[in-house]
Amino acid sequence: MTDSGRSFLPAAGRDIFLPLYDPIVKLFGGDAAREALLEQAGVRPADRVFDLGCGTGTFDVFIKKRFPQIDLVGLDPDPKALARARNKAARAAVAIQFDQGFGDQLPYAEASFDRALSSFMFHHLASEEKLKTLREVHRVLKPGGEFHLADFEAPDDHQPGFIGRLLLSHAHLKENSAANIIALMKAAGFADAAKVGRRKKLLGSVAYYKAVKG
User: Which long-range contacts (C-beta less than 8 Å, at least 24 apart) are formed by 152-156?
Assistant: First the structure.
């Protein structure tokens, strides 16, 4: 898919599947996995929070309901997913800023956020985009700010279940080893980058990472 002359993977893989995206994520445990990521992040009421790869905004609406005082910004390249996200926020009567853009070219000033979150999108990035994206996340975080990432483990780290083998591309996951992600976080300038948790889901094992901007 392309928008503004640059290709991206739609939230559901193909636009035709977008109406099915939210129920499928919920069915396979994605909502619960994201709630665990939020607990890990330790969001505070005065924080400014950034969700990288916000998709259709389900997680963001949940965050805003949980922490109504925070300033929350979600970014995604998929305009159709963002339209759904904005509609969800309007129906829930919560104020969330949704922006269209790419992770390796964030449209925010340096030191803009206290927390950055990302769930189930990092493995979709091309190899050359991964480090650029992490450098951008590092740039927009305040000193002492934290980046919390959840994504599927690489096959070398954990063998996915039967459903995971059917639905998840080995090619997308092969660079998603803990060693590679942690090395990229450190190369991007993060301190204390580490894998801090793991949860099993129908699609396979989900790894949780934390990195701090020194």
Answer: 152/120, 152/123, 152/176, 152/203, 152/204, 152/205, 152/206, 152/207, 153/177, 153/178, 153/198, 153/204, 153/205, 153/206, 153/207, 154/178, 154/180
Neighbours of 214 (CB within 10 A): 10
How far apart CA 43 and CA 48 sit, in angstroms, is 9
> Residues near 137 by Cβ (< 8 Å), separated by ≥ 6?
50, 52, 103, 106, 116, 118, 147, 188
The amino acid sitting at 55 is G
Q: Tell me which CATH code domain 2-213 carries.
A: 3.40.50.150
Residue range 28-46, pLDDT digits in tens: 667 889 999 999 999 999 9
Give the model confidence (pLDDT) of 123-169 as tens digits.
889 888 999 999 999 999 999 999 999 998 877 655 555 444 444 55
Cα→Cα distances 87→5, 95, 157, Å: 26, 11, 38
> What ranges do the domains of the chain cover?
2-213
pLDDT in tens, 52-70: 999 999 999 999 999 999 9
